[in-house]
Amino acid sequence: MDFIPELAAGFLKENPEREIQFTFHTGVTKQLLDELENRKYDLVFCSRPSEERHVTAVPVKKQTMVAIVPEDHPLAALERVKPQDLLPYPMIYFSEGSGLRQVVEQIFAETGTRPAAACETEEDEVIAGLTARGFGISVVPYMELLTKLKLKILPLGSPSSERSFYMIHDNLVFMSPAVQAFRQFVLEKCTF
Fold first, then answer.
1. Are residues 125 and 150 in the same domain?
2. Cβ atoms 124, 141 nearer than 8 A
3. How does residue 192 score in pLDDT terms, banded at 50, 70 and 90?
4. pLDDT per residue over 122-136, tens digit each?
5. Same domain, 67 and 158
6. Domain enclosing residue 157, as ranges
7. Same domain, 27 and 77
8. Across the strands, what pairs with 66?
């Protein structure tokens, strides 16, 4: 919610002499990457693309994945959970095209199974809202919004509970000087 707007605002503040306008779009990883390849976008920020895509992906931010449950859920009494603890409860999943779906599935890979699906949707904010209303439990990236909802946020005791967020561009497409400057700005601000 804040990461990209903060980067764009910081870039504009450091470059007041340039007449640059940003156009922002949101979507799931697959959709964003397809539109990058179709030259609709100059840069996208999303989950790691598959090797089949011939793009350059640079990690720019890490996000901690957390389990969220309604405040009155049996798991809400815990301070931390392991993926195995989540298995008995229906889960709200990210939809198939979302890069976060793969991240969540990787978290459960070590258990050999995964919770039953309560439902699926694309947006992490919607997943948080559905979880707060008791539609299921979820695994999402930590975001400030979670603290404003009636949820218990539970750290995951799992080696795969962090995910990287990538800045991606297509090497085969001309990058304007403004896009090159913004890309460089992001690389300087976001190396981890």
1. yes
2. yes
3. low
4. 888 999 999 999 999
5. yes
6. 62-163
7. no
8. 140, 155
Number of domains the chain is built from: 2
What residue type is assigned to position 36 of the chain?
A: L
Provide the pLDDT for residue 191. 65
Mind listing the pLDDT tens digit for each residue in 8-19? 999 999 988 888
Q: Are residues 92 and 122 in the same domain?
A: yes
Q: What are phi and psi of 62, to 5 degrees?
A: -105, 145
pTM (whole model) above 0.85:
no
Interval 87-112 mean pLDDT: 90
What the block records as the tokens of 148 is 């404003």
Tokens 């690389």 belong to 187
* Pair 87, 148 in one domain: yes
Contact call for residues 142 and 37 (beta carbons, < 8 A): no
CATH code of the domain in which 136 resides: 3.40.190.290
Task: Give the residue-averaged pLDDT of 168-187.
Answer: 92
Q: Do both 52 and 133 map to the same domain?
A: no
Phi, psi of 158, deg, nearest 5: -150, 140
DSSP secondary-structure letter at 156? Answer: B
